[in-house]
Specification:
TIM Barrel; binds zinc ion; 2 domains; about 290 residues
Length: about 290
C-alpha cells in the first residue's frame, strides 16, 4: 500500500479540506493518506477508494524565544487510547521534551518524530531522546520550502551507530497549494506498507516496521536467508548496504540504471544493517534498519 502519513487541511493551516486532499492523493495512485492537523485530531469519516488514516500533529515548543534554535518539535500521533484533548506542550531542555514524548505515548499507540532537520536539534539531543516509533528521514515540505536538505540520512546514521532503534518514514507534510502535474509540494516522499488496505492493518504494519520510505525507487523484496541479506529493486544505479562495520558494500553501475538485485553476507559484528538504493535521477529509497543485536 502506498501512502503519505503527513498532511494538513483547513482543520489547521492547510489550503484544502479533508475531502479535497483525499481526492488529490486518490487521483495520484495513493492507497492511504494520513491527515495530521496541528493540535486537531482528524474525526472525519470517509469510506472511499483511499484509506483515511486518522492522526494529529502535536507540538512541543521551546519556551525561550531563542532564534538560534529551532523551536518546534512536532510529533504525528495515531491510534488514540482515549478521547483526544490536544494542547501545545512546552520544553526548555531535553528532559522536558522526553516527558512530553512520554505523555504522547500514554495518549497514542503510534508516535512519529517529524522533520528533524527543520526542528534543528543537536545530534546529542537526538541521542538522549527515546520512546517514539518512527522518525521522518524525508519531509518534502522541509526539502522544498525550508532547509533544502534532501534527507536526514546523516542523523539516522549517527543514531544507528549509537544503538538507537526506530523506524524511518518519508512524507510530504503537504499544506497546499496543488499545481496539478507541475506541483512540487506533494508526491515527494511516501511509504510502501505491507498491509491490507484498511486503517487498522496499515497502522499495525507501520508500528511493526513492515514498510519502507522512498522518494521514487521501489524495493520489491528484502529478506534474510541464513547470513545473507537479499534485496530486489526496481532498476537503480546503486545499492548500498550500510552497517556499523568499516566497509559498506556498494554495488553500482554509473553508466546505466540496470541494477535490480544485491546481496550482503553478514561478517558477524554488525549490530544493524541498512540498505539504500539510488535511481538515475538521484531519487532514494531506504530499507528499515535491521537490528541484529
Ligand atoms: Zn510540523
Ligand atoms: Zn506538518
Amino acid at each position: 500500500m502506498k501512502g503519505n502519513l503527513h498532511t494538513h487541511t483547513t482543520n489547521s493551516d492547510g489550503d484544502y479540506s479533508v475531502w479535497e486532499v483525499l481526492d488529490i492523493y486518490k487521483n495520484n495512485g495513493y492507497d492511504f493518506l494520513g491527515i495530521t492537523d496541528h493540535e486537531v485530531f482528524c474525526e472525519e469519516k470517509y469510506d472511499g477508494e483511499i484509506t483515511l488514516i486518522h492522526g494529529i500533529e502535536e507540538s512541543s515548543l521551546y519556551v525561550q524565544n531563542d532564534d538560534r534554535r529551532g523551536t518546534y518539535a512536532h510529533f504525528n500521533c495515531f491510534i488514540p487510547k482515549e478521547n483526544v484533548k490536544a494542547k501545545v506542550k512546552y520544553y526548555q531542555n531535553v528532559g522536558d521534551l522526553q516527558k512530553n514524548i512520554d505523555e504522547l505515548n500514554k495518549m497514542y499507540s503510534l508516535v512519529q518524530f517529524n522533520h528533524p532537520l527543520f526542528s534543528r536539534f543537536l545530534d546529542n539531543e537526538h541521542l538522549a531522546l527515546d520512546g517514539y516509533d518512527l522518525i521522518e528521514i524525508y519531509n518534502h515540505k522541509d526539502f522544498v520550502e525550508e532547509t533544502g536538505m534532501s534527507n536526514a540520512e546523516n542523523l539516522i546514521r549517527t543514531m544507528l551507530n549509537n544503538h538507537k532503534k526506530f523506524w524511518i518514514s518519508a512524507n510530504d507534510d503537504f499544506h497546499g497549494p496543488y499545481y496539478g502535474t507541475k506541483n512540487d509540494r506533494c508526491f515527494g516522499g511516501f511509504n510502501m506498507v505491507c498491509a491490507d488496505n484498511n486503517e487498522e492493518s496499515i497502522l499495525h504494519a507501520i508500528k511493526n516496521g513492515y514498510f519502507y520510505p522512498t522518494t521514487g525507487p521501489m524495493i520489491k523484496d528484502f529478506r534474510r536467508e541464513g547470513n545473507i541479506f537479499k534485496i530486489e529493486t526496481t532498476p537503480v544505479k546503486r545499492i548500498v548496504f550500510y552497517s556499523n562495520m568499516r566497509r559498506c558494500k556498494n554495488i553500482f553501475d554509473l553508466n546505466d540504471e540496470k541494477i535490480t538485485y544485491g546481496e550482503y553476507e553478514l561478517r558477524g559484528n554488525e549490530f544493524y544493517l541498512w540498505v539504500k538504493i539510488i535511481d538515475k535521477d538521484g531519487k532514494l529509497a531506504w530499507s528499515q534498519p535491521v537490528y541484529l543485536e
